Amino acid sequence: MTMRTRNLGTTGPTVSALGLGCMGMSALYGEADRAESVATVHAALDAGVTLLDTGDFYAMGHNEMLIGEALRTAPAALRAKALTSVKFGALRDPEGNWSGYDGRPAAVKNFAAYSLQRLGVDHIDVYRIARLDPDVPIEETVGAIAELIEKGYVRHIGLSEVGAETIRRAAATAPIADLQIEYSLISRGIEREILPTVRELGIAITAYGVLSRGLISGHFSRDRQLAPTDFRAHSPRFQGENLQHNLNLVEALRKIAEQKGATVAQTAIAWVLSRGDDIVPLVGARTRERLTESLGALDVTLDAADLAAIEEAVPADAAAGDRYPSAQMTTLDSER
């Protein structure tokens, strides 16, 4: 396999066609093996994956320190190719509870200082607030990142989970490389207004949740018991009849995948890849085994007949349940 590349918008860097989402190595999906996580980052870099995505609030800095360790122990040639994408702004307490978002310029610079230290890098390649701070105009937050770019601490500005109006305001303030937002076969809301807007403005999409947190990976069983600390234990799509309905969609997709000689996960990732060269899926592999499977999506070609069959099996808006619990849905500017 030869890794393909895509550009993060008209102003952003060239990155691998698939990025590695590192959140699950530290938080929200239960315990993860640190040594295996580091080995998975190394394997991703060795396979040509250049984009590593994290957030400073993933296990309160743990994820950034893990990536820092992986970069520090990687061969120099691979380390030099790695690009860091960092989200900031989410506020948490020592018990792990969430308490809002802070997009004030002073906070932006404070968050960046700590991220640079934890990652062990002299700059962050793409920096973005995780959610819009309702009390701070996006122009002020983006303007603060632009100041960090002027000083050499950040290379590019990104956005996360914001709607079309906010995207336009941000882009009028400074060049925006990409919008990070959930996009998958069963999360297609961006197609209505957000995707046309970013394309008009020359902004790329880095798509997270391409397997809907494992729901459409083909590996999630109906009787699987989730730990209380696992985010999915509280996610509407993983509850009761919603789960049964959604796993029926997975079985319909499995039939198509088998005809292609691919796994369900590979088919779901390939579908996101097929949506446009301006979309970079982030695969949340926590192990080398899952990483290898995800990378196999690059070898899956979906023709018009395949795409039509997938559309019939998993129509837009076919999923049961919101993608986040109701309290978190209210924080999403992209859902307003």
TrEMBL record:
Keywords: Oxidoreductase. One of its GO terms (molecular function) is oxidoreductase activity. Residues 18-313 form the NADP-dependent oxidoreductase domain. GO terms for cellular component: cytoplasm. PANTHER family: AFLATOXIN B1 ALDEHYDE REDUCTASE, ALDO-KETO REDUCTASE YAKC [NADP(+)]. This is Aldo/keto reductase. It comes from Streptomyces monashensis.
